[in-house]
Amino acid sequence: MKVGIIGAGRVGAVLGAALARSGHALVAAVAVSAASKARAAALLPEARLLPADHVAAAADLLILAVPDDALGGLVAGLADLGAIRPGQIVAHTSGAHGLAVLAPVAAAGAFPLALHPAMTFTGTAADLDRLAAGISFGVTAPDELRPFAARLVSDLGGVVEWVEEQKRPLYHAALAHGANHLATLVAEAMDRLRDAGVHQPERVLAPLLGAALDNTLRMGDAAITGPVSRGDAGTVRKHLQALDAVAPGSVPPYLALARRTADRVIAAGRLRPQDAAPLLDVLSASEKEPVT
After folding, report:
1. What is the CATH number of domain 2-163?
2. Using CA atoms, how far apart are residues 172 and 144, in angstroms rounded to an integer?
3. Which of 87, 86, 90, 88 lies closest to 76 in space, CA to CA?
4. Whole-prediction pTM value?
5. pLDDT band with cut points at 50, 70 and 90 for residue 176
6. Can you list the alpha helix ranges (DSSP code H) found in the chain?
7. What is the pLDDT at residue 286?
8. Where do the domains of the chain lie?
9. How confident is the model at residue 287 (pLDDT cuts 50, 70, 90)?
10. 3-state secondary structure labels for all residues of 20-32
């Protein structure tokens, strides 16, 4: 197919390059910033850089890879300009949105498709190897477009996960909670290790976090370890005191995650409620007043 990319950011440029690698004709792209122009030059060298309505007019498959909050305005603008034609396929890469945001292009006779790659992108050629290894795509499509969507994901080396329209926000929240918040959590852990005098926190954390992630993906709640899972109230109190002295901003997220961890191990039957009581008292007291 003739493919056009609106948004040569990290996602759009890599998906365009992957489609070109699989045999599609990448004909045009939108690249506005210096970074996106450099990315397009590296990953989409065959694509002409054109205004958005010209890209839309040149493409059989139009991929909209723009920030979530910009998507609605872009779709409405393309429809108002008459840049969308009947029979064209218009796909966006947003995880949070489904087909509703594409209503203006559907009204113009185009086929709408929500195609979200469940991967963190760097916007470099290294992402192509990650795609080829096989990632999941959260896809929402009209019934008549499902066979095409499955073939397109296959062209990208991926696996389809069909997501219902009303479940898109929950789907995306789960991914953001797991991936984005994980990055924040790991960065916080590295900062606190530096505060503790550790010179190479990434070296300390890599085997620990790698094992924790692998175990959790395989075992679920059974992989949870540490003082909360054992009900060690005294240790948790010391953690909170140390964090409050050095990085008070780390106390609320520690408390929130410790409480959620306690809830899960109690529900899983790994920590008896009576054994958890001292720990829960520490967490509750710390939520209400400064740690002392």
Report:
1. 3.40.50.720
2. 24
3. 90
4. 0.89
5. very high
6. 10-21, 34-43, 52-58, 68-80, 103-107, 126-132, 146-155, 168-175, 181-195, 201-219, 227-230, 233-246, 251-267, 273-288
7. 83
8. 2-163, 171-288
9. confident
10. HHCCCEEEEEECC
